[in-house]
Write a structure and sequence with these properties.
Bound molecules: iron/sulfur cluster
Largest sheet of chain B: 2 strands, antiparallel
CATH architecture of the largest domain in chain A: 3-Layer(aba) Sandwich
Shape of chain A: elongated
CATH topology of the largest domain in chain A: Rossmann fold
CATH topology of the largest domain in chain B: Alpha-Beta Plaits
Helix content of chain A: 40-55%
Distance between the termini of chain A: 59 Å
Distance between the termini of chain B: 23 Å
CATH class of the largest domain in chain A: Alpha Beta
Number of strands of chain A: 7
Number of helices of chain A: 14
Number of domains of chain B: 2
Strand content of chain A: 5-15%
Radius of gyration of chain B: 16 Å
Oligomer: heterodimer
Chain lengths: 347, 101
């Protein structure tokens, strides 16, 4: 079912010496767009794939360029849109449906897959030249000189962003410095927000459940009514903390003080705490207020720390270093917060 | 705010100047323009911008660069610590937050 829907982007076939090659358009149809939207919101992200192989855009011939893509449908769609009006081949390699950069980091967008794919697709028979263009972000997984040695094809690293491909080709396969640098603009970060929100939903539901349970305690008895009423208010604060971390963490990232993400998150949490105090959301019970003073920064610190994974400039060594300090602090803060919260129930 | 900077002095990037032939591959592949070729040799411009992606080392034909490549992803490090493996992004659990957007 999914398969037939996904294949809607094939508009025909062309016969070549390397066999029948599916043709794809450079504009997205409604099915493609719906798929993109769903993927942005984390639905079926892992199953959004394109069958590996060669695809034709326009009417390519034996001299046409060969552009390499991951078999993540989003990557493929972005690429074909970017080469509107060109005649070219797209060689989709098997990265288990993962985007170029992550797949390169894992090595699935890598030397051996490329060399194998060149063999399987009989690329030699298809074109007269010995060049393939790879997205620059594939470089962590690919060794250009190894590909050359093993397959005979020279790897040309194209620009990072598919939208720059035409400019790159027109400049005689030269990328400007800007085309070679990853960015992490507010727009890039905005696109990641939906995924951030979806990613921790499971945990926040659990946290909400536990909060409601804990809220039932009082000096005299355990009351389920109190649990629900007082709990609802606390759950709301919890949700606000979660949303602040997942939305404002990414968006305000460069403006939050410090370099370590967990620190930035902690500050964001303090900010939210201050806002909630000023607006009277927090503050009716002193001990509970102090509990939130510990809990909210701990939550936000953890969430923003996890955003390192989506960022484009954090190193493994760096994240390890910040985690060595941040994680114990987050645990201590959360622990103190929970203890104070429970104590506040009995006062 | 073009280039956002991460922690200082943490990366494992090493460059062996003598081995470099100035081919320019590192300059081409680095997503943070850490390398720049001048007068026939590569030079490190700003080491702290390195994110340890490993592209330069992997593509340097003379092995003039060494870096312990990995993903700068807290989620992956947590998963790695729990499973006792090296951190990689996007472990099988697809609801997990991952770098693989
Ligand atoms: S890739 Fe290696 S040999 Fe080429 S310029 Fe860079 S360091 Fe020098
Ligand atoms: S490891 Fe990546 S970011 Fe660091 S210098 Fe090499 S190519 Fe640049």
């Amino acid at each position: 079912m999914e398969e037939t829907i996904n294949k809607k982007y094939i508009i025909g076939f062309m016969d070549t010496e390397a066999g029948k090659i599916p043709k794809v358009p450079t504009a997205l149809n409604i099915v493609d767009k719906w798929g993109t939207f769903r993927v942005r919101w984390s639905f079926n992200r892992m199953g959004y794939t394109v069958t590996p192989g060669i695809y034709a855009v326009g009417n390519p011939n034996r001299d046409s360029l060969v552009l390499v893509s991951a078999n993540y449908k989003l990557s493929f769609d972005v690429l074909r849109q970017a080469i509107k009006g060109m005649d070219a081949y797209i060689m989709v390699i098997d990265t288990n449906g993962i985007n170029v950069w992550c797949a390169a980091g894992k090595g699935t967008f890598g030397t051996s897959e490329i060399v194998n794919r060149i063999e399987i697709t009989e690329l030699k028979k298809l074109v007269n030249h010995w060049n393939i263009i790879l997205p620059q972000l594939g470089a962590p997984g690919v060794s250009a000189y190894e590909v050359k040695r093993l397959s005979g094809f020279s790897v040309i690293y194209g620009p990072i962003r598919a939208v720059d491909i035409k400019a790159f080709i027109n400049a005689g396969m030269k990328a400007s410095k800007k085309m070679r640098q990853v960015r992490f603009s507010i727009y890039d970060r905005l696109l990641l927000v939906p995924m951030e929100i979806m990613s921790g939903l499971k945990y926040i539901l659990w946290a909400a459940f536990i909060t409601v349970l804990l809220s039932g305690f009082s000096k005299t008895v355990y009351s389920t009514t109190t649990a629900v009423i007082a709990g609802a208010h606390s759950v709301l604060i919890l949700i606000l903390a979660y949303l602040s971390g997942t939305i404002f963490g990414p968006l305000l990232l460069p403006w939050l003080p410090g370099r370590s993400f967990s620190f930035k998150g902690g500050i964001l949490g303090l900010l939210l705490f201050a806002i909630l105090c000023v607006t009277g959301f927090i503050g009716k019970n002193l001990i509970e207020s102090i509990a939130w003073l510990f809990l909210i920064p701990a939550i936000n610190s953890f969430i923003v720390m996890n955003f390192t994974g989506a960022s484009t400039y954090t190193s493994l060594s760096g994240v390890r270093k910040e985690m060595r300090i941040a994680v114990p602090l987050q645990v201590i803060f959360a622990f103190i917060g929970i203890v104070l919260y429970v104590i506040s129930r009995f006062i | 705010m073009e280039e956002q900077k991460y922690l200082k002095n943490v990366v494992t990037l090493e460059f062996y100047f003598i081995k470099c032939t100035g081919c320019g591959m590192c300059e081409t592949v680095c997503p943070h323009s850490v390398f720049e070729v001048k007068e026939g040799k590569a030079h490190i411009t700003e080491r702290d911008l390195c994110m340890e992606c490993g592209a330069c080392a992997k593509n340097c034909p003379t092995e003039a660069i060494r870096v312990k490549a990995g993903v700068g992803c807290a989620g992956a490090i947590i998963m790695g610590a729990l499973t006792g493996k090296e951190p990689t992004c996007g472990h099988s659990d697809d609801s997990k937050k991952s770098c693989c957007g």
